[in-house]
Amino acid sequence: MAFERHEITFVFFLWGFLIYAALMTPRLRADAPKRSQYLWKTGVWGECVASDCGSIGLQSRLIWCIHSEGWSTHQSNCFPSERPAQQQACVKMCEWQKNLFEWRSSPWGPCSPTPLPPAYRCVTAQRGVQSRDVACMKRSNGSAVRPHVCEAFSPPPEREQACLLPCPIDCVVSTFSHWSACSRTCGSALHQRIRHVLATPLYGGADCPSLTQTRPCNHDNAHPALCPSDQQEYSYSLWVGPWSSCRLKGTAPVGKTTIDFSFGLDGNKALYTIKRHTDSVHHKNHYHYDDKIGHKAQWEITIGYQTRQLRCTRSDGKNAMLSLCDHDNSPVNFRSCVMPRNCTVSDWSPWSPCSKTCRTSGQSPGFRSRSRVLQRTAIGGGEPCPTLQEKTSCNILEDKLPLCSRYEWRVTDWNPCQVTPLLSQQDHRHSNTSVLCGGGIQTREAYCVRIHDNTAPSHINRPVGRNLCTAPLPSLAQSCFVPCRKHCPLTPWSPWGPCLHDNCLEPQGRRGFRIRTRSIIEESWMESDSCPHITEAMICDDPICALWRVTSQGSCAPLNGSCGPGTQEQTVECFSVTGEPVPSERCPGDPPPAQQPCERPCAGDCVLADWGSWSPCSQSCSSKHSEGHQNRSRTVLALPAAQGKPCPPAPELEQWRPCGTQPCTVYYWHTSPWEPCMPGNSTSLMGNESMCGTGLQMRQITCRRAGNGHVVPKRCPESSRPDSIRSCPVPCKIDCVITPFSEWSHCPSSCLPVNGTTPVQSRHRIIIQRPANGGQECPDTLYEERECDPFPLCPTYRWQTYHWHQCVLVPDWVRQAVGGPSEACGIGLEMREVTCVGVDDSPAGMADCVRWAGVMPIQVRECRVPCRNECTFTSWSRFTQCQGCGSWRTRTRSLIGRSKKRWRCQQEQLFPLLEKEACPCAEFYSQPQGVWSPCLLPPANNQAEHPLVQGVYNQGLATEGWRTHRRKSECGHGKRYRALACLDHQGRLVEPTHCNNPGYEEEVCQVSCSTDCRLSEWSDWSACSASCGGGIKVRSQWLREKPFNGGQPCPKLNYKNQVSEVLPCYSDCSQYVWELESWSVCFINPPNTNTTTTNTTPTQPACGEGFRTRNIRCVKRGGQNQDETVDDSLCDQEQQSITAETCLLRCSAHCVTSEWSQWTKCSADCNDRDLRWRSRTVLRWPEGEHTCPDLNQTQSCVNTTCRKYSYVYSDWSSCQLSEYAVCGRGIKTRLLNCARSDGKLVELSVCQELGPSRGKLTAPCEVGCPVNCLLTAWSTWSECSRTCGSQSHMTRSRVVVQSAGEGGRPCPSQLSQTRPCPIRPCYSWRLGDWSSCRVEGADCGESVSRREMSCMVHWGSLPGPPQPLPVEDKWCLGNPQSKVIETELQQPCTVPCPGECHLTPWSPWSSCQLLCLDGRSFETWGRQTRSRAIVTQVPENQDTCPSQVYETRPCQGGTCLSYRWMSGEWRQNHRLVWCQRSDGVNVTGGCVAQNRPSAVRQCHPPCAKPFSFCTQSGVCGCEKGFTEVMTSHGILDYCTRSPGLDHKKADVKTSAGRLRPERAQNQNQPKDWTLQPLGADGRVKLWVYGLMAAGFILILLLIVMTFLLCKNPQDNRSSSPQKALTLAYDGDMDM
């Protein structure tokens, strides 16, 4: 039982393993190739590790696993069994042995592409490998040893390295042409179509496919059409071989030519052998012409003969009898020829001197050349002439050569600074440019000189041609500055000072001066020589320099009792008028007494206040009509009692006194300008000749009265008298410095043509430094010109030709030897003599005519001797008379004899009987050609008189007439030109002299002048924005006219088209002050009464509270004689005093005190504990119980007047220039204000206790100059760009010396100008097209294709337009192209015989294509390709066809071409797919094969249901008459027959197709299984359900058997059957 249990278990296990193996087999097969993609990679062996050198050790290396694509991966992906060894035994080498051997490697080889994986697609580049040879070498002798010797010291260098190549480029071919016609009309015939190569394969790309497709003509029929009985099966053609070499007529041919019709070994193609019979027949007459003129022996011509082979070929390629080939009896196998003669040249001339004779910084060697002369040209296919000039390098080693001279730019001194070029056109300062100052521009000239090593630095070199200087041109213009003399900024006048002595230290007399001053704002950039006076004085009487001042007073002490007269203590000190304490002896007179009488009022007396201070003088001086005065007053503090002392009357309470009694006459010192600096006796330096050093300047000083003339000097204060003499620097004399004259320009080295003008040569010199300060003047002559020495006239040689000799034919014995006709007729050659003669027809050498007379005329031409059976004609008649210009004249001939009856002779295409030629005509007409040139202005006068000499860059714009020069050179009246072509009656271009015009026409034109931006004049300055302290004032300019035609642009304007200038301004806070009058009498308020009294006058109360008033007004200080009352708004409203206040009149018994004194000043830091106080004194003591009030008051500074003051600066003003300056250095200003802590500006004197301010109120600034464009003068007109044609023109140019900037005038658009040259005809040889290959006298074989060379007249471009027209060859004899060798006019060609396999002619060159990436190319040269395809005519000759060929060549001007797949519309589940190039050409190749669209559309899954098919939309549909039934997945389930109409089926298809989902899971099904679980419609097949049911039953059976085998027998006996049945029932829930 146990055995059966184990057996059943084993069977089930084996069965399950087989199922698992079947399921996993596809996955294992899929993993097998993946593991094969990984392989082991080893590194180089490391250093040998051993205990001692010479002993055995171990060395290791790295081993890692890589993918086949090159990236590293985990080692588990590689097979462990294939892992290489990581260690090996080694012998450690000693250190000294390392110096004996070394690794040596060769340069890297070319990069070759590596094989790409099948699925790899190259995107931008492909991997490549380049290798090199690495060998272990012995250092001593370089011999190779075994590699392991060097490996013991160091690992070997890499033998391979990766490299990148462009992606492979496959061959690209065009589409096939149309099928050709059949090679035969019957029998086995072929027709083919060909294509050509557009791009060759590169970088491992696919090779070109076959260029030819061939198919039988009757490819639809199994058997070709049989030929009719009357038509031969084969055709026969006469084949000729190439002509033999030309032989002398005295040498007989090798024998008769026969053909051996033996077949080759293969029996397919007939071979032929030429057999010759060796006869030795010689002919003695070989036509040798003796030369009686010298040099003719070198130019003689010998006529020989040449032969060629003949054979008759059949259309299948086999040879046949010559009689089968139809041909006439014309001599096709022999002809006359010119014996070849090689070109002969003279011996080499000696080597020319080496071009490099000195040592330079470059490594390029010098060159030397030699030449030889042509002595005899090659004719008859002889060897062409070798090169006539040879060039070789020399002086490669420069060590022994002297140093070369170098060329450098030199510049002259800067010209004087000019401001005029910076002015705009509308600037009013053009009228007086002498006063201009500020920023300007100055220029200089540059010239090229040669510098030698031994040249002293101070040596002045002579100028050379400017083309020798290769360095950049130095700067020829720069900004400069002219000091401004007229601008002298002054501060405002100070107030008039007190009347002082002229010298307070030594006072004299009773007359003094009142002085006011102003100061000059110091600026370093201007000269203030002409500044006005800064001090003014007025004469006054009783001058006082110091006076006594009471500093303190005590209280009044009565002499008797408490009131009445008494004395008062006082302290007196001496102060200057400026308020400074001075010694007491400075004060005049005795000091006031220490005690002065006083009076204290008694009770009931009137009490008066002290006198107030004197008011300011109403006028500073007196005139005839007004004089100044001032007053003071005091007030009543207490009215008297009835018995008391009364108060004085009101007039006595105010006092007046005169002031300003001096006359209003102002005096000042006037200074004249400084005289020129005169050298002193002791200041001369370097002798008397050089007057440098220090000198003296003097000026006149006079005293003037304002508004009048001079007065005596004593009326002006002597203390303010200016200096009349000062020291000054004495300028040195500056002499003119000029360069030496340059070398004379070169005269032409060639000979002078006949009637040519005598050339001239010139030289020049340049002013380096202009004279100044009385130095030596410059010479007047700067440019000289002279005629060159007489040149020999060019020699005149010409070719002399003679009559043609008799026509020379092949000798009779030659014709008989090759089997030709016996009659001496046919084509031959005739010769003539050509000699070289001089002017007087004297003989000359042929080489002279080759050099001076052009191409030698032909000496041999073809001729014809008519045969007996050939056509015979009469001689040509004379040409008919011309009927006028443009007509034709003709001549005729006629047939004679038997030729009249022959049909062949009557063919006028072969034998014309009429010839015509154009009549000569001398009518010519002019035709305008091209467009008008730009309007060219005439050169300026100075430029016309002094042209721009070579080597000098004359800026020419910074002179006095810069503005005039520019205006004349840029606008005004000029002329423009247009070329005229002279044509003959046939429209051919001829010389302009035939039309009696210079070759161009001209007309007057106008160039518009430029207009600069125009602004208005500056407006007046606005009033200062602040009445006290700092403010701003503004002035503006408005746009009047915009710039035009390159004028100077406008400055930056605001939205109102204005430009504004802002300046800070200062209003003196004391300029507008409140002037206070004295308080009025205190009026006591009347008592309030409720009853009204009539006819009674109220009485004034004697004491009590009342009020008083006063008048105030706003006054402007600083008037000449008096203050000016202005509007109250100009004064500070915060400081406005009250006009009314309460007052108190004390009663008789009350205490009377004085007015409060001023508050004491607080400290500057204003601490919290600071106090201020004021006091008053008792004027009358009280009586009875009355007491006096407090006599002192204190107050905290913080709560009242504790305010801090500090200096503040306004913003900087805009940069201010002189009124005569445009730009340059200026001054900017700012104001210093005193600001209170609350931000209010106060008097500047309040901050003076802080000390002087450290900041500057003025600073230099700079206004950028408008950098106008500066140009050099126009250069001279160049030579014509071409010698002929309509595109020839002359050019002149100018160079930008300084580009425009900072709003300057821009550069004109024209920096170069052109004008047309006369149109002269161009004559060129034009090679015609190659003629078609045609074999004369035969059907096929070897021949020569020819092309003609004709002389054409054209307009500068031979292809046109206009189309070139033919002219006589004499006009092209001087053209170098006439020396075309014979090989360029003919080339061998082959005409294939019928049935012969051959190559097509070369296809045209393809378009130039570049190697590009993403549309961009990284090369300048492209490639062009052409090819030859195979043409097979008969099937029998296909094995003997040659291979197709293609070739490439580099080209320029290529384009980037791309390729993409194109597809057509679907038709029956098929569509056309082709590759198209970006230029629209359909090609084969070039497109990526992996991206090729599908050409056949298939349904997935396939349509396997009955009556189903694949529709054009790619889904399965049913045939007509059936309706689709779809699954829930949108897949066709089956087709059912439609019971109704067809349109219902369409509705079902439409609705079903709308619900069809994509089945992505179908794509992931295992494809290796033979049994597919899903059907074509996506549904599970029935056998899968059966297999699942069987598996379920098997599992159930396995569970039951396991239960039965594992059950305990005892339990089995005790258990009931029902329970087992219940367990069995529970196992199947479906039961």
Count of discrete alpha- or pi-helical segments spanning 4 or more residues = 10
The radius of gyration computed from the alpha-carbon positions, rounded to a whole number of angstroms, is 63 Å
Oligomer: single chain
- How does the overall form come out from the CA principal axes? elongated
Describe it for me?
This protein is mainly β and 1631 residues long. Helix content is 7%, strand content 31%. The chain has ten helices and 101 strands. The protein has a five-stranded antiparallel sheet with strand order 14-12-97-96-95, with no helix packed on it. The protein has a five-stranded mixed sheet with strand order 22-21-16-85-88, with no helix packed on it. Strands 28, 30, 31 and 58 form a four-stranded antiparallel sheet that branches. The longest helix is centred in the N-terminal third of the chain and has 34 residues, at 2-35. The protein is elongated.
Short summary of the structure?
With 1631 residues, the chain is mostly beta strands.
